[in-house]
Design goal:
heterodimer, A: 12 helices, 4% strand, globular, B: Rossmann fold, Rossmann fold
Chain lengths: 300, 373
């Protein structure tokens, strides 16, 4: 039982990162029906920019730990959002009316470009974050949970909740939802679809960048290829929850993390990915559009 | 990138003042310049290029200049087979590399068919030299030797419950199997044997599982990025079981990733690290390397690639020919106790390096790698 609970917390922490990245996939897909394969790399950019800003500005020393990290997070999210917006302008908008395959190829190309650009700037070595966060842990019911792990989970959940409220409760959010349902109809209603798309490419990458920063701060070790594994897992999470659906991405991410952790615990660590994908296949057989995906034929 | 390298190589050649630039002896280097082992690959390239420049300054080989042709294998078997095909069509006499065993394995047959000498520098999987490939050599030792040393260390540590963790790669699984076979033969208790997935960042689930079987010691046969994270996360869990690792963990970045506190006390097997190379040649070489690249070599596998280049150069000189059969004959017969940077080098008929190379290292408080007596 103790092991079960410990693994559950392990899984939730990893899953919350997956969920945060999955939001970027799902938002872009919801509006454009495009899988943004470069999203995993934007996540990596978040991690690298966070490291550079952290070491060069030393914000936690100047502003105190919490305020410093908050400012850092805002800066990283802003910068990655700018990269996301440029990506949309340069790689996706020119192909908006082309066949969907062209956009997918462009996305893959953008991913390779971003990844190698990062390698040329930072070198191929693993990079390491400076130790700024306390390494202490909470002891609850015989469980030992690092405080950072709880923080990662809470920060992710807070960001997901904020996004959900933004999309559901504000006028801009309504515009995003309208564009996701039918771009032409949205345009007729006076919604500037181009701006909506740009906004989606600002919010998604900002969240992805924040996830990158969290991973960097928590795990300490980052590499220019790390976006691949996380991107693939997050993409899986997005499909699991129903791609195009924001709560679905959160549920999918957390579920995937937990399934992996429990799979590693009770089967074998080397089988955990297989188990995660088996769950995905099972879910897709029963619900082809994902756990929370709408059953709308033309959406799939 | 590649074009730039080639231009640079051409410029370097021109600077040395070679008259017949068209008529050179081409030696290939296949290294993971990108991908997750890129730092190893970049060092391999530095070592081989430095040695080639030194060789050319001394007049080259058989009166010709040496040209190093670098191909990136990306640390990936598929990329490696393409790289091998490109190298063989460029008329290389011999190829140095590469690092990972699975990657080397993907290229072995291509070189063998093209009759190109291959000298791997980091591929320790046993079966690479058990296939009867005529032109394959390696300057690194084999995993069965490492397995013997590893099992001996475990036996000496008096640990009663031993956990073995690998990462399912050809090297890591091979080494883990070797160790387990020896431990079982000695009736020692292996309480855990499982693999993790490399390139992830969260290993808390496997650590939690490991902790539940209460081992006295954990032997991890994988690579340093994962080892660093394991040590760090083990400390976060507040678990202080001793960890031991194999030779793929020998990289200073281990301490950077894990942090000094978490890495302290960690032990690993390895050929001697560059700073512990004690022959006069090796010391002079480290100085020359430092002069050219403004930092000391940090990876032993880069130096082993350098040794690979030197034995090939020596064999071409000794055989007075670049024909693969003659070079092979010299390497297996003529070359005895060649003073390599990493110790004396001789090859047996299989292409394996003869002699014991493994030492035990421990990470000290300051994060340094200290050779254990």
């Amino acid at each position: 039982m103790e092991q079960f609970l410990q693994q559950l917390t392990n899984g939730l922490a990893v899953g919350s990162i997956y969920a945060l990245i999955a939001l970027g996939y799902t938002m872009v897909y919801g509006v454009l029906r495009l899988i943004n394969f470069a999203h995993g790399d934007l996540f990596t950019y978040g991690a690298y920019l966070g490291m550079t800003l952290l070491t060069s500005l030393a914000l936690p020393d100047r502003l105190g730990l919490v305020a410093g990290l908050l400012v850092l997070a805002v800066m990283v999210m802003g910068l990655v959002a700018v990269i996301g917006a440029i990506l949309e302008r340069a790689a996706y908008r020119p192909l908006r009316d082309s066949p969907r395959l062209s956009a997918v190829v462009s996305a893959l190309g953008a991913s390779i470009f971003l990844q190698n650009a990062l390698m040329l700037v930072y070198g191929a070595r693993y990079q390491v974050y400076p130790d700024v966060l306390p390494q202490s842990a909470l002891e609850v019911l015989g469980l030992r949970i690092p405080i950072l792990r709880i923080a990662v989970l809470l920060v992710s959940l807070a960001m997901m909740a904020a996004l959900y409220l933004f999309v559901q409760k504000t006028r801009v959010g309504t515009a995003i939802r309208a564009a996701a349902i039918d771009q032409d109809a949205a345009r007729l209603m006076g919604i500037d679809v181009n701006r909506v798309v740009l906004l989606v490419f600002v919010i998604g990458p900002a969240l992805g960048g924040a996830a990158g920063l969290l991973v960097g701060l928590y795990y300490g070790q980052i590499s220019f290829t790390m976006g691949w594994v996380y991107g693939m897992k997050a993409f899986t999470a997005a499909i699991l929850g129903g791609i195009g659906n924001i709560p679905g991405a959160m549920v999918g991410g957390l579920l995937l993390g937990v399934v992996e952790a429990l799979g590693a615990a009770y089967l074998s660590h080397s089988w955990k990915d297989a188990l995660a994908f088996a769950v995905l296949i099972l879910v897709l057989i029963v619900r082809p559009s994902g756990l929370l995906g709408e059953r709308v034929a033309e959406k799939v | 990138m590649n074009r730039m390298l080639r231009t640079l190589a051409a410029l370097a050649l021109a600077a040395v003042g070679s008259a017949g630039a068209a008529d050179t002896i081409k030696i290939g280097l296949m290294a993971p310049l990108t991908g997750s082992w890129a730092s190893e690959g970049q060092e391999m390239k530095r070592n081989v290029e430095l040695l080639a420049a030194e060789q050319n300054a001394k007049g080259g080989l058989l009166g010709k200049q040496v040209e190093v042709i670098v191909e990136d294998d990306g640390g990936d078997p598929r990329t490696a087979s393409l790289a091998a095909q490109r190298l063989t069509t460029k008329g290389v006499v011999a190829v140095i590399g590469t690092y990972g065993s699975a990657v080397t394995e993907a290229s072995q047959n291509i070189y063998d068919e093209a009759k190109v000498i291959q000298v791997a520098n980091g591929s320790t999987a046993v079966r690479l030299t058990e296939k009867g490939l005529k032109y394959f050599f390696r300057t690194c030792p084999r995993d069965d030797e490492q397995g013997r040393v590893g099992a001996a260390v475990l036996e000496k540590s008096k640990a009663r419950r031993i956990a073995i963790l690998h990462d399912n790669s050809a090297y890591s699984k091979g080494l883990a199997d070797e160790i387990v076979a020896i431990l079982k033969a000695k009736k020692l208790d292996v309480v855990f044997f499982d693999a993790l997935t490399p390139k992830e960042q969260d290993y808390s689930s496997i650590l939690t599982k490991l902790k539940a079987v209460t081992p006295d010691v954990v032997f991890f046969t994988g690579y340093y990025p994962e080892a660093g994270l394991l040590l760090k996360q083990k400390r976060q869990m507040g678990w202080n079981v001793p960890f031991i690792g194999g030779d793929a963990i020998n990289n200073p970045d281990l301490v950077k990733i894990a942090g000094k506190e978490a890495a302290e006390g960690f032990r690993f097997l390895s050929p001697p690290v560059p700073k512990d190379l004690d022959t006069p040649e090796a010391k002079a070489y480290v100085v020359a390397y430092q002069k050219r690249y403004a930092e000391a070599p940090s990876s032993i596998y880069g130096v082993l690639a350098g040794d690979g280049f030197r034995v090939v150069a020596k064999a071409i000189e000794g055989a007075k020919s670049t024909a693969a059969d003659k070079v092979r004959e010299y390497l297996t017969g003529g070359l005895k106790d060649f003073p390599g940077f990493t110790g004396r080098i001789s090859f047996n008929g299989k292409g394996d390096r003869v002699g014991e190379l493994y030492r035990v290292y421990q990470v000290d408080k300051a994060g340094g790698f200290v050779l254990q007596p």
